[in-house]
Design brief:
This protein starts with a helix and ends in a 6-residue tail after the last helix. It is globular, with a radius of gyration of 21 Å. It has a two-stranded antiparallel ribbon. It contains 12 helices and 4 strands; from the N terminus they run αααααααααααββββα. By secondary structure, the chain is mostly helical. α1 packs antiparallel against α12, α2 packs across α7 and α9 packs parallel to α11.
Length: 350
């Protein structure tokens, strides 16, 4: 029991550390790849069954979400439960060790901080070489059209993605993993993947993707607030070293707080605006604005006030904010988990 409680405490830091050093190697099969293929398969199947009407597509989208959520939770739960049961039943430490390791491995695969940094670094290098390469690189991580973006547009699109993905790529999966291990984390990853694939407001997914989009909003509701507040605190810690150098960039804590309080609900998403507004204020730049999706112009409000023009280095500054917010969120989740365990169990056990 003592080992199990310690494992409950330290499995999240272990998963975060693995993501920090490994990222997403191409030779390791990622759950998102499996989920993506399943979503595409079931979408074709369900569309062939349900009528192409408003409510037909909404019911079809609901059943797709239901199938994927049950699958993504039940499979890892049954696998881990079977390993734990057999390990305890036959007193087999190898099976128990494998169960613990598999749980941490799946948890690590649900985090994307390292991959987010790598993609942002790629945009930084490409846009520094040429605008055409920058557009192509940022097109890998954003859903908007990139063909008409200028250099500042490429930079802002990358910064917005880093800020927004701090929630659904790092903090929210950490919260789900801490709460229920790999089954909860993979469930969240499925919800997020469905939103990325079918949660659009275009003609094809306006009704079919409604359930996926709403469920993703709910799943990220807590994580987005934790990520934004952690980002604000991170701007303070990143500001402190700049005090001792007149040439270092200074993150702005006050403007981060002001922009967060003023603009966090201007975004059409109830969650994306939380971290994007905090990031815009900390960097003293303006994010948001109109963007093209599938050739259609979407009018969007601006987040933050333009104290200066966006520059290439803002990509690295946003990544630092993302990592700072991730570490602060990790510490916060760890403390909450520790207090919960101490509340339920006898502290003398430790």
């Amino acid at each position: 029991m003592k080992f199990f409680l310690l494992y409950q405490l330290f499995r999240l830091p272990a998963a975060f550390f693995l993501d920090l050093i490994l990222g997403e190697p191409r030779w390791i099969l990622h759950p998102v790849v499996i989920f993506g293929k399943m979503i595409s398969h079931f979408e074709r199947l369900i569309r062939s069954i349900f009528p192409a009407t408003k409510w037909g597509e909404r019911f079809g989208g609901f059943f797709l979400v239901l199938i994927m959520c049950v699958y993504s939770f039940a499979v890892p739960f049954l696998v881990l439960y079977g390993l734990f049961y057999c390990g305890l039943r036959f007193d087999n430490k190898i099976l128990l060790g494998f169960a613990y390791g598999l749980d941490v491995f799946w948890g690590y695969q649900c985090l994307a901080a390292r991959n987010l940094r790598d993609e942002a670094d790629n945009v930084y290098l490409k846009v520094s070489n040429s605008l055409a390469e920058g557009r192509k690189a940022v097109g890998r991580i954003v859903g908007r059209d990139t063909d008409s973006l200028d250099k500042k547009g490429v930079i802002k699109a990358c910064v917005e993605t880093v800020a927004e993905s701090t929630t659904d790529g790092v903090v929210s999966p950490m919260i789900f993993y801490a709460a229920g291990g790999a089954p909860f984390a993979l469930l969240f990853k499925t919800i997020n993947t469905m939103d990325s694939m079918i949660g659009y407001k275009n003609e094809r997914y306006r009704y079919f993707g409604t359930t996926a989009a709403r469920l993703d909003d709910i799943a990220n509701l807590i994580g987005s607030r934790v990520a934004a507040l952690s980002m604000i605190v991170a701007s303070l810690f990143l500001y402190i070293p700049s005090i001792f150098s007149r040439y270092a960039f200074q993150y702005n804590l006050i403007r981060s707080v002001r922009t967060f309080l003023r603009d966090r609900y201007k975004h059409e998403s109830p969650n994306a605006g939380q971290t994007e507004s905090a990031c815009a204020g900390a960097l003293c730049i303006q994010l948001g604005g109109d963007a093209y999706y599938g050739g259609v112009l979407e009018r969007r409000p601006y987040l933050g006030r333009r104290r200066r023009e966006a520059e290439t280095e803002d990509i690295h500054r946003a990544v630092k904010l993302m990592y700072g917010a991730s570490v602060i969120s990790l510490m916060l989740i760890f403390m909450v988990k520790l207090l919960a365990i101490l509340h339920v169990f006898n502290p003398a056990w430790f």
